[in-house]
Amino acid sequence: MLKYLFVIFSIINLSIYAKDLNISVCVNDIQQIPQILLANNKIVGSEIDILNLAVKKLKGKLNIKFNIEMIPWIRCIYMAEKGEVDAVLNASYNNERAQFLDYPPDASSIETSPCSSKYLLTCAGYAVVTLNSDPYEYDGNPKNIPKPVRASRGYSIVEELQKIIPNDLEIDKDDMTNVKKLALNQKGSAVVFSSYFNKLKHDKELLKKVKLNKKMYVMKSYYLAFSKKKSFQNEDKLMLWREIGAIANDKKLNSKIESKYLMFK
Q1: Residues 193, 175 contacting (CB under 8 angstroms)
Q2: Which end of the chain is more exposed for a tag (fewer CB within 10 A), N or C?
């Protein structure tokens, strides 16, 4: 009897002393299937499922409530820099962002292998899109990508491309705009985010003009990154990152989660 009373008391005690965290989060308002999308005016996707599972696992230690808003990516990053939101969802690491965003301990612009972080939220990246009429296939050398190269404003890949091909880079608002410009102008290429593939697969007219190159430009870890303007304790962030990473790195579970959203266009 005493043993059962002790167990009940311990559970009650944990719930009393669990820390409440309300975390405001912004994410790109362009749907990134299967990671982030809108369904029946509700934000859903594999990353939302991963966050919810992490929250459940931490119940009793941290009571977390996420308030997630989809806004233009440039504004999302700006708001995190100014401390107007607590965190950014689906952010890869780069040196510029690291000045105002807190990333998990092993986050780096150079990973030992693609998507090798213990704390990643998702594994994603960029690919090259070229004209069907162009025999070129990406060979791993970005200097050889057909010019002009188009990329989306605010993406981490822009910083890298500006160093490699500063005079042959065109930056526009999103991947769809860039690929349509490629098809219209019949010249150059586009470097697009990997989730754009699912949208392109359903655009039969566009696929008559352009193709996805087989070799990825890059694959890397993406994170839930916190604004340095906010005062969340490091141990709380680390607890959350650990749970997120444990779920995201479970390939079988993650594949099952992602499969729920791949049918969306």
Answers
A1: yes
A2: N
